[in-house]
Amino acid sequence: MDAEQKREKRLKTNEESLRELWDNIKRTNIRIIGVPEGGERGKGTEKIFQEIIAKNLPSMGKEPLTQLQEAQRVPYKINPRRKTPRHTLIKLTKIKDKDKILKAARKKKQVTYKGTPIRLSADFSAETLQARREWHDILNVMKGKDLQPRLLHPARLSFRFEGEIKTFTDKQKLREFSTTKPALQQILKELL
């Protein structure tokens, strides 16, 4: 391996480590998307979150939300005159609480705030979100072929093939594996 290849490999490893570190910092965060602007005047973001939980996830609303550490609106980075509402970040003290809330929200299917549909999701770095988006088309094709695909934390694809569970961190590794399996290569031919 020459010096340039070593440098590239080290750079890629450092970028992955930074992304993992950033995702670890954000691990207890929940991102709320779609809460209308101006709704928090006089209420506070924490109260809005508690109201969302109480109305949409009644089993969670019975427990006091003492695990709430911080809540804030995320400022616009690209266009401050954008008409869509800013995201709200909720920082919880325990990851178990975040997992319970997200699981209950997925089970309910549609979460609303004052009649407006909103979305609760885990907070990830921009790089991780992009990596997760890249798996989207492959996930849809695999679901159609009954391969039981799943997106693991933070952005790894896992699926069942020939009785075994296979996990891949990027498309290149999936491409290399699929060349050894003609059936899988046929399923993913246009996507890889």
UniProtKB/TrEMBL annotation:
<dbReference type="InterPro" id="IPR004244">
    <property type="entry name" value="Transposase_22"/>
</dbReference>
<dbReference type="InterPro" id="IPR043636">
    <property type="entry name" value="L1_RRM_dom"/>
</dbReference>
<feature type="domain" description="L1 transposable element RRM">
    <location>
        <begin position="27"/>
        <end position="123"/>
    </location>
</feature>
<feature type="domain" description="L1 transposable element dsRBD-like">
    <location>
        <begin position="126"/>
        <end position="190"/>
    </location>
</feature>
<comment type="similarity">
    <text>Belongs to the transposase 22 family.</text>
</comment>
<dbReference type="Pfam" id="PF02994">
    <property type="entry name" value="Transposase_22"/>
</dbReference>
<dbReference type="InterPro" id="IPR035300">
    <property type="entry name" value="L1_dsRBD"/>
</dbReference>
<dbReference type="InterPro" id="IPR042566">
    <property type="entry name" value="L1_C"/>
</dbReference>
<dbReference type="Pfam" id="PF17490">
    <property type="entry name" value="Tnp_22_dsRBD"/>
</dbReference>
<dbReference type="GO" id="GO:1990904">
    <property type="term" value="C:ribonucleoprotein complex"/>
</dbReference>
<protein>
    <submittedName>
        <fullName>LINE-1 type transposase domain-containing protein 1-like</fullName>
    </submittedName>
</protein>
<dbReference type="GO" id="GO:0032197">
    <property type="term" value="P:retrotransposition"/>
</dbReference>
<dbReference type="GO" id="GO:0003727">
    <property type="term" value="F:single-stranded RNA binding"/>
</dbReference>
